[in-house]
Amino acid sequence: MIDSWAAVDVAAPAEGTMAAVDVDGTFVAIGTLDGTLVAFDETCTHRACPLTDGVLADGSITCPCHKSRFDLRTGSPINGPAVDPIRIRQVRHEGGPIYIER
User: Fold this and answer.
1) What mean pLDDT, rounded, does the chain reach?
2) What is the helix (H) or strand (E) element at residue 92, kind and residue range?
3) Are 30 and 7 in contact (CB under 8 A)?
4) Angle ∠(80,101,20) on CA atoms, nearest 5
5) Which CATH superfamily is domain 8-91 in?
6) CB 79: neighbour CB atoms within 10 A?
7) How far apart are CA 58 and CA 2, in angstroms?
8) CA 72 to CA 61: how far, in whole Å?
9) Contact residues for 34 (Cβ-Cβ < 8 A; gap 6+)
10) Can you tell me the distance from the alpha carbon of 39 to that of 88, in angstroms, rounded to the nearest whole number?
11) CA 60, CA 99: separation in Å to the nearest integer?
């Protein structure tokens, strides 16, 4: 259903880079990793640092503040200090707008 997706006004980021977009009042990071678009809530669950300032590599995002690393398939922390997962969001992009799960 279309209500479960938000169209975002951003071009697909270059490989290994990210951008933050607003999805219904929540900042969501969108990035490209291994040629695939990924999206996840942009704030680290440890100390609310912006994950778009972190490192996107090896199927994970590493927080720039305290080096918590999250699995981009599940959102689970791979290493702390974070213990709570980040929310992973589905992405659709078929040549037109990019849609992110609400």
Assistant:
1) 95
2) strand 91-93
3) no
4) 60
5) Rieske [2Fe-2S] iron-sulphur domain (2.102.10.10)
6) 11
7) 31
8) 7
9) 15, 59
10) 6
11) 21
Centroid of chain to Cα 60: 10
Any bridge partners for residue 5, and if so which? 101
Q: Are 74 and 29 in contact (CB under 8 A)?
A: no
Structure tokens at 62: 């590493």
Model pTM above 0.90 = yes
Query: pLDDT tier at 42 (50, 70, 90 boundaries)?
Result: very high
Q: Give first-to-last CA distance, the chain, whole Å.
A: 11
Name the token pair of 57.
């590599």
CA distance 35 to 40: 16
- Domain range summary for the chain, segments of one domain joined by +: 8-91
| Predicted confidence (pLDDT) per residue in 55-102, tens digit | 999 999 999 999 999 999 999 999 999 999 999 999 999 888 999 999
